[in-house]
């Protein structure tokens, strides 16, 4: 970990894979190793945490491989990730009458007022 602290981590990587490894993936891998080598066993990660971190390091490596060769390793990798399919939820419009406004104005009984307001919304699909 001395190389990591001095910023020389890339110097200990095998020259045959040095050009292929993503700097971000290498840094994450070194962090994992450092956590596993902690003096106190209680401070070390669980195998589940190690597995998750290794899978993340692999994703960093795979994301780096899909980029163009001229791109810098510090660019935002999230732009390469697919955008999830987001569906719009139905919106409900609620009109308020004078009775509703009076409930909102009632400062002395705010908890029951909130309850009354929400019960008057009448949204059938609410959970």
TrEMBL record:
> Which InterPro entries has this protein been placed in?
ANXUR1/2-like, Kinase-like_dom_sf
Q: Where is the composition biased (Polar residues)?
A: 109-118
Among the GO molecular function terms of this UniProt record, one is: transmembrane receptor protein tyrosine kinase activity
Q: Which PANTHER family match?
A: OS07G0166700 PROTEIN, PROTEIN KINASE DOMAIN-CONTAINING PROTEIN
Q: Which domain of life is it from?
A: Eukaryota
Q: What is this protein called?
A: Serine-threonine/tyrosine-protein kinase catalytic domain-containing protein
Q: Where is this region: Disordered?
A: 63-83, 106-127
